[in-house]
Amino acid sequence: MTLILRDKASLREWRAKVTQGTRVGFVPTMGALHEGHMSLMAQARAQADIVIASIFVNPLQFGPNEDLSRYPRPIEADIEKLEAAGVDALFLPSVEDMYPTGASTLVEETMVSGPLCGAERPGHFRGVTTVVLKLFNLVQPHVALFGQKDAQQCAVIERMVRDLDVPVEIRRGAIVRENDGLALSSRNVYLSPEDRAAAPLLRQSLLAVEAAYQAGEHDAEALARIGLSVLAQSERIRPQYWEVRDPESLGVIATVGARGALCAVAAHLGTTRLIDNLVIGRGIAARVPV
């Protein structure tokens, strides 16, 4: 039975009782759990003695015109999934508990968070780093699991942990996909049937670029144009960006070299924003799940 901890005081009391030497694994989420989340729970179970998850729809990472109010919150179904997965505890705080009246401190990473989703969603990653650091301070995990689908988020959190000397090991879990290649996302439920039919083109654009790279095309701009040309097959897809970037700093690169590259795409289908990515090349590519 998963223990539900509904406030910070309960979490601190639970954490204080964890035996010294017990390895704690942590999977922070915003709920609406799918098989991608559950794969992270399984990896945490394999790497730790105790697994705790959190569900918190963090208002700080939503912009004024984004989907905070309609973000799916099927909490009872989520709890059932966590219990079936053998998760030991769930931290389920309120906004008021996480951000008490008068709270005025924010945490901001200033390099990796800048391009891609950071450019399109100002303040988003500041909200991510703020809540994740708070969660790390409360849970005190030894290892924390994040999904590679949010590759920039992973990179930002890894940089924050390194820069601020946070004693937690960050692990990335591979992207889990539907049979047609669409990356699992809590936002996929918003897609109309027509948009859902077009959505696999995001993954197909990544695979087309990977094939072009393997065939000898290493110019970053040329590879990005190939990716965009695949998305152009559907008028329903409105690309926000298609970029080939350094896999660690996310800086601009001219060619894909020994470090490999992160190919990242974001697009709107109707009112739904989807992202996907793929690491190509050598170097870091061997360490990042695909």
Automatic annotation (TrEMBL):
Keywords: ATP-binding, Cytoplasm, Ligase, Nucleotide-binding, Pantothenate biosynthesis. It holds the Pfam family Pantoate_ligase. It comes from the Bacteria. It is an enzyme of class 6 (ligase). (R)-pantoate binds at Q61, Q153. InterPro entries: Cyt_trans-like, Pantoate_ligase, Pantoate_ligase_C, Rossmann-like_a/b/a_fold. The active site is at H37. Its main location: cytoplasm. Belongs to the pantothenate synthetase family. HAMAP family: PanC. This is Pantothenate synthetase. It comes from Devosia ureilytica.
